[in-house]
Amino acid sequence: MIIWTNRLSKWCRDRPSVVVRAQEKMEVIFGTIQRVNYRQRELRVIAKGRAWCFTIPDTCELWFDGVRAVLRCFHPLDPVTVHYECKETVALARAVYSWEPA
Question: How many helices (DSSP H) and strands (DSSP E) are in the chain?
Fold first, then answer.
């Protein structure tokens, strides 16, 4: 757990300024990826004791280990931070950050 905290604090220093400005309007959740549906562009995350399902639009920023990434870089059991906003009944991910688990 200490390793995740260290990597998370590094991510907080290195994250893009665009997300920092937009973060005030978005909600943030920290969890673990349960499933990635690449065709439907959906991400299922386990956090806060339950499963969360996010839709990944084309405008979503995807980052892995501090580098821009594609959705296929994300896999089950990866730790993840999701910045999202709720539109009606859908949770839209605006930025997804992950890092190599230690």
Answer: 2, 7
Q: CATH code at 51?
A: 2.40.50.320
pLDDT tens-place string over residues 86-102? 988 899 999 999 998 77
Q: What is the pTM of this model?
A: 0.74
Write down the pLDDT at residue 88: 84
* Domain carrying residue 64: 2-98
For residues 24-47, average pLDDT: 93
CB atoms inside a 10 Å sphere around CB 23: 14
List own/partner pairs for 44-50 with CB under 8 A and 24 or more apart: 45/80, 45/82
